[in-house]
Amino acid sequence: MIRIVSTNITSPLGLTTEENYSAVRRGETSLKKIDGYRNVPGKFCVGMFSDVRRKELRLDGFSWFESLVIRSIREAASHASVDLSSPKTILILGTSTAGIEELGVTPDKDGAYLAPGVAAAKIAENLGFVTKPLLASNACISGATAQMLACRLLSAGLYDNAVVCGADVLSEFVLAGFSSFMAMSPVECRPFDIERLGLNIGECAATMILSKTDEAGGWNIVDGSLDNDAYHVSAPIPSGDGVCRTVTNILTPELKETLACVTAHGTATMFNDQMESKAIENAGLGDLPTTAYKAHFGHTFGASGVVEPIITMCSLDEGKILPVHGFEELGVSGKIKICDALMDTDKKAFVKTQSGFGGCNGGVIYSKLPQGPMKSGEGRYEVAKTLSVSPTSLVVDGAEVPMESSGAALVTEIYKKYLSDGSRFFKMDLFSRLAYAGAGLLAKDSLDGTDPGQRALIIFTQNGSVLADRKHLSTFAGTEGYYPSPAVFINTLPNVVLGEIAVKNEIKGETTLVMLPGRDDETIETIVDVTVRATGPSAVIYGWIDCDAEDSFRADLKLIKTI
Amino acid sequence: MEELILNLKEQIIDALNLEEMTPDQIDNDAPLFGEGLGLDSIDALELIVILDKFYGIKLANPAEGKAVFKSINSIADYIKKNRTK
C-alpha cells in the first residue's frame, strides 16, 4: 500500500502541518481584505503571506514559488527517514502556475522565470534529488494528479519513495486573470452557502512524502481516479457527472462503510459548489458529513489537493470532523449534509473530491486502515496511429502529408482541412491550437468502437502555454490601461486545451498534462506505461507538444489501443 | 451610429480572434450567442472588457450583460446611452 510517511503545510497560517491544523481547528483564516494588489485594482480578499513573512521565507537565488516548495519539502523530510538523494526517490510537483510572477512580456525581461518543469529540476537539484522530477499541471486538480503519478510509479516498483508537493503562489498574473473572470469574492468565501459570492485566491505549499509499505499503521492513499467531463472551457458540467465517476470508480461498498466524511473542493463559486453537491449526492455519499477548507486557506490551486486531505487526516486522528468555515445556510440543490458544527467520529477514512478548468476531476480515498495493493491491469497495447507536426511538415503514420503553408499557418491549415468544427480554435494560443489540431487529426475516425470513459489523453510539454502567458501579461502590464483579457487568460492554463480536445473527441477518461524540464521520450513512455497499467484505458492519445515561439514548435503524438 | 457599429464590430473581431470575419458579415440584429456568432460565456466576459476599455462603461454584474449583449444593435444602443469616453 502507499503510505503517507510525512507531511508539511507551509501557508500564511503556519510553517508546519501542526501549526496549520491548530490554526484551522481554532477557526482561523489566512484570508484578508486588500484594496488592490500591486498594479491590479479592485477590492479582493486573499490568503497571502505578509510582506515580512515573504522576506523571511524567500531563499537567495530562488523565486517565491521555488522558495515555498523547497521549505515545505525540507520540513517534511526533516521528520521522515527517506533519503532524497536515493535513485529510488522521485520529486513530483503539482502546480497550475509555478513561478509565473517572474515572467516578462518579452523573453529578455524574464529575469528569474523558468518554465515550470525547469524550475522543478532546479528545486530537485537544491534538495539533493538525483532522479528527474515530474510536474503535473492540471489546474485545480494538479495536487491529486501528482499523487496519482506518484502512486503509479511506486506501485510499479520503479521508486520506493515519492515526494509530492502541491504549490501555487499569489501573483498579479493570477489575480488579474480571475478578476477578469468575475469569479472572486470581495469578502471571505462561504463554501456551499446560499450567499456565497465566489472564490478567494490563496497561496500555499503542501507536501506528502509517500512510500510503498506492507506495514500497518499510518495514513494510506487507498486509490484515486481522474477523469474529464468538459463541456465548456471554464464552467463545470451542472450534473457533476465527472466528479461523481471519479468517486464511484474507486469506491467499493466495503470502503464506503469505513468513510468518516467527504472533503470537498468547495471553492464557493456558484457553479462549483452546486455541481459538487450533485456529484456527492449521486455518488451515494449524501449521508456523510461534507467538509471544505477554502475559507481557511483560500483556493490554493495546485496545493489544494494536498493541503486539504492533510487537514482531514489531522482532524480524524483527533476523532473530529471540522465544520465548513463561513457556512450558514445551504445554497446548493444536491442532497448533501454540510458539516456545520464540530463532530465526533471514530472512523479513519475519507474521500477527497476536486475539479478544475478544462473539465478535469479527481477523486482520492485516504484511509488509516491497512489496504491491499492498488489494482493494476494487464492490458496489452499497440500503436494504432502516429502524427508529427513541425513548422514545415505534417507526418501521419510515417508518411509526409503535402501542405501548402508553414509555421503557425500550417497548424491552421490542418485545422481547416481536417477539423473545421466551429470550436474555439481561433481564440486559442499556438500551443493549444497545435494540441487541438494534432490530437484532433490523430483521433479522427480512430476512436470509434471505444468507450468514451475508457479514452485517455496525456500530454507532455516544457513550455506549455508560455505564449498565452506573455499575451495575458501584456493586457495589463502596458501603459494603455488595465484590461486583462478573459479569453487569453483561460488558455494560460495549458491543460485547458485538453478539455477542448476531450469535448471534441468525447474523451471522458483521464486527461493529464505533465511538464518536464525538457523533452525526454523515455520518461514519457514510462509515465504512459504505469498509467495504462493502473487505469486500463482502451485508447490513449499521448505525446510531446511544445511551442516556445510563433515559429518554433513540435508535436509528436501517438494513439495506442488495447489489443 | 454607423461608425460606432463598425468600430464595435472591429473591436469584437479583434478581441475574440474571429479570424477571417469582416464587419459586414456580422448581422446587426442576429443573436451573438448560441446561434449566429456562436459566442460563449468567456466571450461575454471579453465583451465586458471591450465596454470598459473603449467606452468607459463598467458592467459589474455579468448577469446585466444578457440583455445588453443580445445583438450588435443592442450593444451599440447601450454604448450610446452610457458611454463615458
Q: How many distinct folded domains of chain A?
A: 2
Number of separate domains of chain B: 1
Largest sheet of chain B: none
Could you tell me which chain pair has the largest interface and how many residues each side has? A-B, 18 and 17 residues
Count of DSSP-assigned helices of chain B: 4
Q: Which overall shape of chain B is indicated by the principal axes computed on the Cα atoms? A: globular
Structural notes for this entry:
The complex is a heterodimer of chains A (563) and B (85). Chain A has 563 residues and is of the alpha/beta class. Helices cover 32% and strands 25% of the residues of chain A. Chain A has helices spanning 17-25, 51-57, 64-78, 116-127, 142-155, 172-181, 241-248, 253-258, 270-282, 294-297, 304-317, 408-419, 430-443, 466-477, 486-489, 496-505, 521-535; strands at 2-10, 31-37, 40-47, 89-94, 134-136, 161-168, 204-212, 220-228, 261-263, 289-291, 320-321, 337-338, 343-344, 349-356, 360-367, 381-390, 393-396, 399-401, 455-461, 511-515, 539-549, 552-562. In chain A, the strands form three sheets. Chain A has an 18-stranded mixed beta sheet, sandwiched between helices. A two-stranded antiparallel sheet of chain A has the order 2-3. Chain A has a two-stranded antiparallel ribbon with strand order 11-13. The model of chain A has no long low-confidence stretch (mean pLDDT 95). Chain B has 85 residues and is an all-alpha fold. Chain B is built from four helices and no strands. Chain B has a single domain (2-82), classed as Non-ribosomal Peptide Synthetase Peptidyl Carrier Protein, Chain A (Orthogonal Bundle). Chain B is globular and about 30 Å long. The A-B interface holds A 180-182, 232-235, 422, 424, 426-427, 481, 483-487, 490 and B 15-19, 38, 40-43, 45-46, 48-49, 52-53, 62.
